[in-house]
Write a structure and sequence with these properties.
The protein has about 325 residues and is of the alpha+beta class. It has helices at about 1-25, 40, 75-90, 110-115, 125-135, 140-155, 165-175, 175-185, 195-205, 210-215, 220, 235-250, 255-260, 300-310, and strands at about 50-55, 60-65, 70, 160, 205-210, 265-270, 275-280, 285-290. It binds glutamic acid. The site of glutamic acid (GLU) has 10 residues, from loops.
Amino acid sequence: MTDVVERLNFMHDLAAIVADIAEEMQAAPDRGKPADYIPPLARVDVAQFGMAVVTVDGRVFTAGSADELFSLQSISKVFALTLALGKVGSQLWDRVGREPSGSAFNSIVQLESERGIPRNPFINAGAIVVADVNLTRGAPRESLAELISFVRHLADDDTIAVDVEVAKSESETGFRNVALANYMKSFGNLHHTPEDVLALYFGQCAVAMNCRQLAMAGRYLMAAGLNPTSGHRIVPETRARRINALMLTCGHYDASGDFAFRVGLPGKSGVGGGILAVAPGRASIAVWSPGLNAQGNSQLGTLALERLATRTGWSVFDRADAPPA
Ligand code: GLU
């Protein structure tokens, strides 16, 4: 009985925590700057903030602009990695490392000394190798369709789609990604043409989702690889645990250590201003605010997650007996 009461109190508190954080973020003076490398991202209004928390028992708490679509960008690397591991399993690790890079997301420097093997699947070079693995359907368009239908399945939402304008801008300006792809091709670490691999990579970055959809899509990572509502297995438990480990250590580029220090949850950010965070066994969380900090991670998204983790006791470094979601 005490358990049930404690739980109900916590659910009530969680609704209040989410609402309070959104209110605090609405009023925050320092909102960062939106990504400016392509016009469709540069013009997004930094006044916006959204948040969605989906608990392991299926409750959904949202606040602010939780239904506003934003560009997934590098968060797509989590879903692409999940798909690639499903195709080739641990053979992927012959071609991509599992160490934090300590460098910017699009750095080319390490690739030289490490002979075309990217440090991890969440920097651009690593994600480009993952795209090469996912290019199993012939043309990039078909492989992109496969990725989108996977994300739709994860989120239980058939409306998720690519923002065509963003995809076009990505490919018109992605010179550094073209360089990374060609460089890895020269080391033999791409099996398809750089053009085809990048068409898939740019397409996946341009997927548009809102916080509610993203938190839903991340449920398998908080629930040991299962869809917690249907009970269907998405990935083996070990794989979910390992993807979480990579998100914790590599999910925020060269600010991954700082994110672990402040938030203490596996998380993956994107330059569209979104962050997917996972409280294992408890909740899948999505935040979005387009203004970025100096490392290219959402300024208010990070702050909101820091406050959520503090107020719920959900950091993976917290006491294990913090209230369950
Ligand atoms: N489309 C961006 C790029 O590849 C993604 C960067 C990001 O979200 O970190 O340059």
